[in-house]
Amino acid sequence: MPAPIIKVDAISKSFGTFKVLDGLSMQVMPGEKLALIGPSGSGKTTILRILMTLEKIDGGHIQVDGEQLYHMERNGQLLAADERHLARMRQKIGMVFQLFNLFPHKCVMDNVTLAPMLTKGVARAAAEKRAIELLDMVGLADKAKAMPAQLSGGQKQRVAIARALALSPKIMLFDEVTSALDPELVEEVLNVMRKLAAETDMTMLLVTHEMGFAHDFADRVLFFDRGRIVEEGKPDEIFRHPKQERTQSFLKKIIAAGHRV
Amino acid sequence: MTQWSGYLGLILQGALVTIELTLMGSVLALIMAFLAGMGRVSRFFIVRAIATVYIEFFRGTSIFVQLFWAYFVLPFAGLSLTPLQAGVLALGLNVGAYAAEVVRGAILSVGREQYEACTALNLGRWQGMRHVILPQALLVMLPTFGNNAIELLKATSVVSLISLADLTFQAQVVRSQTGSTLMPFLSVLIIYFALALMISWGVRTLERRMARGLDGVRV
Ligand SMILES: Nc1ncnc2c1ncn2[C@@H]1O[C@H](COP(=O)(O)OP(=O)(O)O)[C@@H](O)[C@H]1O
Ligand SMILES: [Mg+2]
């Protein structure tokens, strides 16, 4: 049995006096597809942002790909990670945001090639060749020269996925990547994610309210509530036979709101 | 009539000096604005402190006093400047202090999500600033930069006080030599106005070119 690629160990995180994550622990295996579900405000976004180093932790430890994320070992001592260490760790992780966060002043091609050229020293020609492959994969090869403002939400999100993939991370984090989209555009983004799941062995963590998609996509589902994992299991266990009362009532509400499970 | 054209020649020479001052002063102001404006958002306290002192000092004292210092006092410190150099220095530092606040405000106006995208893509602080934040901030700065440049143009007339033969200085010369007030002062009025119009127009053209493709998202 291989070692986990992510090991979260008793981390806590507060915003002011409000404790968002309270001694959270979890493990993710290499290549695993994980769905994080739960009510709004339960800390799902926060854990992804912590893994992307967009948010610091107050306590606990995180190991990514065999190394401490927020600590460095120096002469047998654990020190707080410096910017160099964080930059090296970030190479392993990519993130796609709810609101795409594309660079509005750069065309699609430049959005995708910027980071590989700057952070990995990839030559422009090679970066563009790879970008075309990725844009082709997300079905947007013909939009390479378009500006983000000329794209639909679904197209923007697919560009954002290609942009994150261009750095070849081992782990991809998706934070409600379809929540900001018009309903008819959701499927084109989900299709890209299905393709990714089928064709790559990337580890994928997905926060979503699309329960039907989570059911088909995930190897394992974590149900979050108030900064803790209340229940976890295979999609069938969580969606068909939830054991915890809080999971049951959450799913009931979601179905009542019209989501397919 | 030939006499008038001679005097007009003097005024046009003055206009050239004014244009020269405006261009060189603007370049210095631009450099200072970016240094101090980015210094104001630095993560190092000492850099922020130096930038703040510079900005507050040059906004808090008058351009006259700054010019007199540059021209009359600096020589005591062993730094003798020509009137043109002193003018460019005073104008550039003065307007640069105002424009620095524009740079700072524009940098802060770029949304947090853009900074976060930079982090997620593992861009270094400077790489993100250079390729993502500043290009977007520049569009926010431009209109105000245009105003700053016009302020600088208008302020150039102070150099006539250290006998640099700029537009205003030449107008005085023509007035004292001809006894006519209307002709020299009307000409300089028109020339200052025309120069200001050219700055406005140039900045607006630049703005339009840079905003192309952005669909008005950030203007
Ligand atoms: N920067 C912040 N400052 C203060 N409170 C925050 C901040 N970010 C998140 N929170 C709070 O933390 C809680 C968890 O947020 P989040 O992780 O976004 O939840 P979820 O993604 O599960 O909806 C929420 O109550 C939210 O209001
Ligand atoms: Mg969220």
From TrEMBL, chain A:
Coiled-coil region list: none
SUPFAM superfamilies, per the entry: P-loop containing nucleoside triphosphate hydrolases (SSF52540)
Topology relative to the membrane: Peripheral membrane protein
Alphabetical UniProt keywords: Amino-acid transport, ATP-binding, Cell membrane, Membrane, Nucleotide-binding, Transport
PROSITE patterns the record matches: ABC_TRANSPORTER_1, ABC_TRANSPORTER_2
Major subcellular location class: membrane
UniProt cross-references to InterPro entries, sorted A to Z: AAA+_ATPase (IPR003593), ABC_ATPase_HisP-typ (IPR030679), ABC_transporter-like_ATP-bd (IPR003439), ABC_transporter-like_CS (IPR017871), Ectoine_EhuA (IPR014343), MetN_ABC_transporter-like (IPR050086), P-loop_NTPase (IPR027417)
Compartments (UniProt record): Cell membrane
A cellular component annotation (GO) from this entry: plasma membrane
Gene Ontology MF terms: ABC-type amino acid transporter activity; ATP binding; ATP hydrolysis activity
Domain ABC transporter: 6-251
KW Chaperone (keyword) present: no
Family designation: Belongs to the ABC transporter superfamily.
Name of protein: Ectoine/hydroxyectoine ABC transporter ATP-binding protein EhuA
Organism: Mesorhizobium atlanticum
Gene: ehuA
UniProtKB/TrEMBL annotation, chain B:
Name of this protein: Ectoine/hydroxyectoine ABC transporter permease subunit EhuC
Cross-referenced Pfam families: BPD_transp_1
This protein's UniProt keywords: Amino-acid transport, Cell membrane, Membrane, Transmembrane, Transmembrane helix, Transport
Domain ABC transmembrane type-1: 15-199
Gene Ontology CC terms, in alphabetical order: ATP-binding cassette (ABC) transporter complex
Membrane-crossing residue ranges in chain numbering: 6-36, 57-74, 182-203
Major subcellular location class: membrane
SUPFAM superfamilies in the cross-refs: MetI-like (SSF161098)
Entry keyword annotation includes Protein biosynthesis: no
GO biological process, any: amino acid transport
Compartments (UniProt record): Cell inner membrane; Cell membrane
Molecular-function GO terms, alphabetical: transmembrane transporter activity
Record membrane topology: Multi-pass membrane protein
Family listed: Belongs to the binding-protein-dependent transport system permease family. HisMQ subfamily.
InterPro entries (UniProt xref): AA_ABC_transptr_permease_3TM, ArtM/GltK/GlnP/TcyL/YhdX-like, Ectoine_EhuC, MetI-like, MetI-like_sf
